[in-house]
User: Fold Urea ABC transporter ATP-binding subunit UrtE from Ciceribacter ferrooxidans.
Amino acid sequence: MLTVDNINLHYGAAQALRGVSINAEMGKITCVLGRNGVGKSSLLRAITGQHPVSAGTIAFDGTKLDGMAPFNRARTGIGYVPQGREIFPLLTVKENLETGYAPLARKDRFIPDDIFSLFPVLQSMLGRRGGDLSGGQQQQLAIGRAMVTRPKILVLDEPTEGIQPSIIKDIGRAIRYLRDTTGMAILLVEQYLDFCRELADQVYIMDRGEIVHQGTAETLDTPEARRHLTV
Ligand SMILES: Nc1ncnc2c1ncn2[C@@H]1O[C@H](COP(=O)(O)OP(=O)(O)OP(=O)(O)O)[C@@H](O)[C@H]1O
Assistant:
């Protein structure tokens, strides 16, 4: 389980996270919802080690992550699908997937078949450059690349952003498949309410750097929850 306990995060003098605590359990999809700029990406940057926290602790699988470099967090089993996907545009699809080998022991350096069962388009485009793929295909590639690292928790930053509905469905199916077959934890930040409502086992809502609501997916339909999500 991932445990985020009472963290603060600053950009210079500006505080982006205030006493944020969340848990993401193994075999569950945990969704953090919130409007633009409330601190969702900052929370994921704190978890993946892209930005230091100024207070609080983060632990995964019994290991405290405080002060640990991002590549070592990847070794403990944290797979990250960043906002905007961050595909290498001049590398081929295959080479992009192979960048996921970095935290792996030599014997594990292969591309698991289930990536291609989930996203057949990646197999048919293995030799194409990442930059030539559509936004949706790049999102599938970013998830595939994170899967190559054999994560125990997959952390996704707005995977539906700018993506057409048919591919959003494929991504939802893939996330469910990963939860059900591997038992990994999935932590998803999103603005897209319906996507979270359909997938999530547990939801949190953030507003202005704080967690303001916590519950099951059904609780998203309460007026209290809606108030934090409407612009
Ligand atoms: N590198 C940075 N330097 C200074 N301020 C930042 C930086 N990154 C984010 N912020 C600010 O921190 C706050 C939280 O931003 P964050 O990106 O975490 O929000 P978000 O909920 O992920 O929003 P979005 O959905 O737009 O990505 C915002 O006010 C943002 O302007």
